[in-house]
Amino acid sequence: MRIAGVIPLYNHGNTVAAVAEKCKCFLSDVLVIDDGSSDLPVGTVARITAAGVELIRLERNRGKGFALKTAAGILAERGFDYMITLDADGQHDPEDIPEFLRVLASRNDCVIVGCRDFTAPNVPDSSKFGRKFSNFWVKLETGHSCGDTQSGFRAYPVAAVNSLKLYCNRYNFEIEVLVKLLWAGYECVDLPIRVTYLPGKKRISHFRKGADNWRISWLHTFLVARQLLFIPHKKLIVRPPEFDPKLLRHPLKLLRAGFRENPSPEMLGASAAVGSFLAVLPLFALHTAVILYVTVKLKLDRLMALSFQNIFMPPVVPFICIELGYFLRHGYFLTDIDWRNWSVELHLRLWEWTLGSLLLAPVFAAVSYLVVYAVAKRIQRKNHEQN
């Protein structure tokens, strides 16, 4: 297997040379992809090339994702199998590369992600929250648990990256490529890695909280929507199916298959939220089928979702939705409940039910999530204390 190191660079001229030199100690082929930097000190280029590292300079800044895709294209033409990527700012320690090589020595069906040690000093709270947020959504989109979906220290299969349709060019690229590799049949292997964060203003980050968080949020919205479609994902590695469609004909077997022994509190809460949200909508005898479809696609706990469906069964919740919808249309609540009139005005009641449910469904979903998450977290904590 041919493996190369890739260091995407943008305005980290004071640290990139040291990172490249250390990478060269473990990999015979190392590329630095300069994404339009303007701060390279005098002698940096000479130092990089003197270490035997290839420097490829792009004309203008187009984003970390674009730099990584450029590297993948170059390495594919040269016949490389994997590329190990790490940041140029010195956050990642190249001495962890041998652990990546150890895994790759025995398998080529995975993407390896370095799981950062957040007990290290100076770790920003935003990074801790961002990792939890991203891990949750990737789990929802793929059904796979990954320890650090925002880490840039990774090992990618070069041919697979080049064969996927990847649209993101900036920090959101690392989420997109990970999700699509998992969809394609690759496994995520977590490797513990060391991490160094400089204190305060000494740390230089080009992550723009507004624009980049907006891009990542829209990406997760798209990925969840794409997962819910009937269109199958492109498969590069075929594995035994995790779910047998024949189970849809056997509800009891489906419920047993949907129950997992140790689901996380976040995923249990999400399952309850999805079950509550869909149960409130006017789906007319299709609630169970729709909830099963969504939970299967999103790899959620079907039993939990179906249990919460029962809480919102007619007639109480639909009646509340109709009253709210009526109030939105007329400015006052419906008090003249004449069932004969209701049969004549059925189309109006259905419209009011839809209006009310669109407002109440998110509220019930949020409450369901918070309640189940809190209970599951408490049970998890008690079990941990007992063990």
Structural account:
With 387 residues, the chain is of the alpha/beta class. 52% of the residues lie in helices and 10% in strands. The protein has 15 helices and 7 strands. It has helices at 16-24, 44-50, 64-77, 97-104, 125-142, 158-163, 173-183, 209-228, 251-258, 265-280, 287-297, 302-311, 316-330, 339-344, 346-386; strands spanning 3-9, 30-34, 54-57, 82-85, 110-116, 154-157, 187-193. The protein has a 7-stranded mixed sheet, sandwiched between helices. Strand 2, helix 2 and strand 3 (54-57) form a beta-alpha-beta unit. Helix 5 packs parallel to helix 7 (173-183). The relative contact order is 0.09. Mean pLDDT is 86; it is low at 258-262.
Properties at a glance:
387 residues, alpha/beta, seven-stranded mixed β-sheet, 15 helices
Radius of gyration: 25 Å
Tally of helical runs: 15
Number of E-state strands: 7
How far is the first residue's CA from the last residue's CA?
Answer: 43 Å
Which bin fits the share of residues in helices? Answer: 40-55%
The geometry reads as: elongated
Q: Which class of secondary structure composition applies to the elements?
A: alpha/beta
Order of helices and strands: EHEHEHEHEHEHHEHHHHHHHH
Described by strand count, sense and barrel closure, the largest sheet is:
7 strands, mixed
Strand order of the largest sheet: 3-2-1-4-6-5-7
Low-pLDDT runs:
258-262
Mean pLDDT: 86
Beta-strand proportion: 5-15%
